[in-house]
Amino acid sequence: MINILHVERGSFFRKVIKDIAAQSGLIHYEADSSEAALEILKKEPVDLVITGLELADVSGEEFVERLRRTQFNDIPVMVISSSDSMEDYEKMFKLGVVDFIHKKDISYDRFNRYVQSIVKEDRLVTKLREINIAVLDDSQVSLNVIRNIFTLNKIQNVDYFKDPKELLASNKNYAIYILDLILPEVSGDEVIMKVREKSSDNVIISISSVKNYKTISNILLIGADDYIIKPFDSNVFMARLKATVRTLLLLEEIKELKSRLR
């Protein structure tokens, strides 16, 4: 069951969203101010926050800024407003909102499609928390950055390596390999090829500050599934990981279908 929190000054539109949520089978909470919203967040699990631009105590922009400074900063936020201002759009997207919908465009179908995408994303995160992940980077700073991203997302089944030989000597099977390109003693492309020799099903993501398109195309051709340029944004990093997990889930479904057909 998905829990949503709608923060809006006007009671009429809060009722509109409440009715849509009821049709979608969602648990609905509502508040007219940022203070009331934060109190609900402290007491109830919330999967999606919907906010207007005008609240009883502060603006929607101030509310989202405040939300980002709390332990609830990873909850996706959608804006529903009557504003047509591009400045409002830009401000809210810079704050990390996931969508900005005009009130006249809101409908059961669009709202339900978005909520279903939240359900799918939750499935991807759950899968990420279940599978084994290996991270190889000779930079302790880079390892710490990735470790912090995983810790914030409660992803714990991760082994961190600074030495490529140690990773290659490991008998443990990893669903996802995150591999630095520039490594001591053993080149990153050699590591990729050796990992790919072990299994064609595992996902390999190469990370590097190298931006040369020929290098990137070569890395993808020899076996990497994706290439992320350093320094990377944590949200983009997680989005790319979720995309790879989507592929893993699809492969699992194909395998299961094949086994049923035998």
Automatic annotation (TrEMBL):
CDD domains: REC. The keyword DNA-binding applies. Pfam families: Response_reg (PF00072). SMART domains: REC. One of its GO terms (molecular function) is DNA binding. SUPFAM superfamilies: CheY-like. Keywords: DNA-binding, Phosphoprotein. The modification 4-aspartylphosphate is found at D180. The keyword DNA-binding applies. Residues 3-118, 132-245 form the Response regulatory domain. GO terms for biological process: phosphorelay signal transduction system. This is DNA-binding response OmpR family regulator. It comes from Spirochaeta isovalerica. The lineage of its organism: Bacteria, Pseudomonadati, Spirochaetota, Spirochaetia, Spirochaetales.
